[in-house]
């Protein structure tokens, strides 16, 4: 069995109101020096070794992300 991580982030040109809210709150909470925040999604999948990279890309693109407004990165990690 393998662990796969899929990180999904808004494309750079897409407004990220959640990230902006976090960025605005940080100085009020005493955390300074953070210039920008982008909020995304993080998925961890445990898959059989037979699941190939093409299938993982299809899962990420067709189910875990909205490819019109989001980019994704799929990577296998050691357990």
Automatic annotation (TrEMBL):
Signal peptide stretch = none
Source organism of the structure: Haloechinothrix aidingensis
Source gene? purS
Q: Which molecular function terms from Gene Ontology are attached? A: ATP binding; phosphoribosylformylglycinamidine synthase activity
The GO annotation for biological process reads: 'de novo' IMP biosynthetic process
Question: Keyword Methyltransferase: yes or no?
Answer: no
What quaternary structure, including any partners, is listed in this protein's UniProt entry? Part of the FGAM synthase complex composed of 1 PurL, 1 PurQ and 2 PurS subunits.
Where would you find this protein in the cell? Cytoplasm
Q: What does this protein do?
A: Part of the phosphoribosylformylglycinamidine synthase complex involved in the purines biosynthetic pathway. Catalyzes the ATP-dependent conversion of formylglycinamide ribonucleotide (FGAR) and glutamine to yield formylglycinamidine ribonucleotide (FGAM) and glutamate. The FGAM synthase complex is composed of three subunits. PurQ produces an ammonia molecule by converting glutamine to glutamate. PurL transfers the ammonia molecule to FGAR to form FGAM in an ATP-dependent manner.
The EC number on file is 6.3.5.3
As its record notes, the protein acts as a catalyst of:
N(2)-formyl-N(1)-(5-phospho-beta-D-ribosyl)glycinamide + L-glutamine + ATP + H2O = 2-formamido-N(1)-(5-O-phospho-beta-D-ribosyl)acetamidine + L-glutamate + ADP + phosphate + H(+)
Domain of life assignment: Bacteria
Q: Which HAMAP family match?
A: PurS
A single GO cellular-component term from the record reads: cytoplasm
Q: Under what name is this protein listed?
A: Phosphoribosylformylglycinamidine synthase subunit PurS
- Pathway per the UniProt entry: Purine metabolism; IMP biosynthesis via de novo pathway; 5-amino-1-(5-phospho-D-ribosyl)imidazole from N(2)-formyl-N(1)-(5-phospho-D-ribosyl)glycinamide: step 1/2
**SUPFAM superfamilies attached to this UniProt entry:** PurS-like (SSF82697)
The UniProt family comment states:
Belongs to the PurS family.
Keyword Protein transport present in the record's keywords: the answer is: no
